[in-house]
Amino acid sequence: xxxxxxxxxxxxxxxxxxxxxxxxxxxxxxxxxxxxxxxxxxxxxxxxxxxxxxxxxxxxxxxxxxxxxxxxxxxxxxxxxxxxxxxxxxxxxxxxxxxxxxxxxxxxxxxxxxxxxxxxxxxxxxxxxxxxxxxxxxx
Amino acid sequence: xxxxxxxxxxxxxxxxxxxxxxxxxxxxxxxxxxxxxxxxxxxxxxxxxxxxxxxxxxxxxxxxxxxxxxxxxxxxxxxxxxxxxxxxxxxxxxxxxxxxxxxxxxxxxxxxxxxxxxxxxxxxxxxxxxxxxxxxxxxxxxxxxxxxxxxxxxxxxxxxxxxxxxxxxxxxxxxxxxxxxxxxxxxxxxxxxxxxxxxxxxxxxxxxxxxxxxxxxxxxxxxxxxxxxxxxxxxxxxxxxxxxxxxxxxxxxxxxxxxxxxxxxxxxxxxxxxxxxxxxxxxxxxxxxxxxxxxxxxxxxxxxxxxxxxxxxxxxxxxxxxxxxxxxxxxxxxxxxxxxxxxxxxxxxxxxxxxxxxxxxxxxxxxxxxxxxxxxxxxxxxxxxxxxxxxxxxxxxxxx
Amino acid sequence: xxxxxxxxxxxxxxxxxxxxxxxxxxxxxxxxxxxxxxxxxxxxxxxxxxxxxxxxxxxxxxxxxxxxxxxxxxxxxxxxxxxxxxxxxxxxxxxxxxxxxxxxxxxxxxxxxxxxxxxxxxxxxxxxxxxxxxxxxxxxxxxxxxxxxxxxxxxxx
Lengths: 139, 400, 157
Known about the structure:
The complex is a heterotrimer of chains A (139), B (400) and C (157).
Chain A: H1 2-12, E1 15-20, H2 26-33, E2 47-49, E3 57-61, H3 66-78, E4 84-88, H4 89-94, E5 116-118, H5 125-138
Chain B: E1 2-7, E2 19-25, E3 28-35, H1 43-47, H2 52-60, H3 67-82, H4 88-116, H5 120-141, E4 150-151, E5 154-155, H6 161-187, H7 189-195, H8 203-208, H9 213-217, H10 225-228, H11 249-272, E6 290-298, E7 301-309, E8 315-321, H12 323-335, H13 343-349, E9 360-364, E10 371-375, H14 376-389
Antiparallel strand pairs in B: 1-2, 2-3, 4-5, 6-7, 7-8, 9-10
Helix pairs in contact in B: 2-3, 4-5, 4-11, 4-13, 5-6, 6-11
Chain C: H1 3-14, E1 20-25, E2 28-32, H2 38-49, E3 53-62, E4 65-73, E5 78-86, E6 91-93, H3 103-113, E7 116-118
Parallel strand pairs in C: 2-5, 6-7
Antiparallel strand pairs in C: 1-2, 3-4, 4-5
């Protein structure tokens, strides 16, 4: 019974943490634009949090550079269970145009396990919303 | 008592990862330092293995907010290497998109500045108006960001009469709303009070540290590549260089708002005088061995590309210097003698485009050496509390 | 003053230090000096011509030598100073005493090419990560990167 309430609250109001791992910023402004009045992700109960310890979902953009790899792993470990990861944009999926560079790991799933991939360069705010909603449907 | 605060890669306020270390004495910052490299993607090495046409798409993704600046700067240089001259209609369309990008970037910055100053309503208003500009850009090019409208020898798409009238109609709406923001800025004492006196950069320091863009223009240096070294069609389009004399964050806001109004006039001029003709010419694949320096005024400052070719269809060397890198030494100077509560605002005031972050700050007690990590949101909360209790300065006015 | 006047004045003030001077396009001047005359030439350019604004410093690997370009600009024109140093002895002196804003560009030059900048006020690396193996300079022409095998989660590698 208690389990059902907890799962219902997690589904109705996921709190997200926005992480930028070396991206060009286009996907990041689309994530922030998803909060503005036109697309308004807050009607789904989604709230942007500042610290990993309060977050349920990590939204990450950008190809992972070598310098930030350890910090990402540390942030992933600081987030309490159960946690989900959304990789937004073609860079987080496989590296986009930077594939083959010497400072790039080649996609977010080389570093931490990913649940949802949202394609696009950059991914439109509508697509990001659809990704978040699909994740909620799986819960 | 001295603390050293590392403002590290993950941070909710600024959207890009860099790491700053600041030494504090009480609440006053005495020293600041930067660690770049979280965003280093090895682009210059990648550019040597791709042809000129493929490099247009690579340079576009250096930065998402000023992507058109990087492609135009690159394409201008390569067109000089290949000795082709794009047709006039193509040039007019290219710089129409450039001025629209400047509008969208300044509105974005106004929203971020409002958010850092605690004025969230302003953030929501300006980003709602930005959607009008994104719709115009989507009608012209097909995408909201990364327009990919440049090609070697001109532009890829043309606009027709219906689109032209729609853009002129939206311009009226944008003008009315921007004047409303001007009115808020001039008559809202808490907003002006929050920005005045913060992040002071004197004219002598700005010249010695080679600052660019609105950060330099707010220190009374009339430096603008569109006037000093006119490229494209800027020799024919009438506009003024906007400066301010207060040398602080309020001056930088004033410069950007004035530039917004200039941009609307320029867009109207470009649309009303659009010449007829083709929009692009064919170019050859290879470029003769030569070198070229291309400069462009991006919304954040001067963008400079150095391209060297060697007779094949791939460049020998591409060197890019984005404007925010040039403003770093000036920012570190501005942070010294400031308050810890002002760190988010000073940093946001140079309009950082560090892809061209996440920050956490580490406060290190200077005397005892113990460390405490605070997040930016905690810093912002401290900032709001501090400023809510501060008295309103009666003589802080909007300098127009 | 236009490009011709700048070139005449430069020849008069710098004299024998200029090895070569060209003007390939409007408002673009290219000047070559020897490495040991660099700091003095930059000082004269800043004081007599008003070239106090340094845009950036580019390094190029041209086979036997490294070529370093300093891009300056003032109200009238844009001037580039170039100098060549041999690969066997890659040393160049810093211009931070004359132009304080050059520090970040010189640090990047050290990182990317392995050029040693003498008298630099702050020699730390700028853009490469902390765990980068020493001795690898990415922008040299003979440095190639072997991409490691990627593992595809949940699939065949």
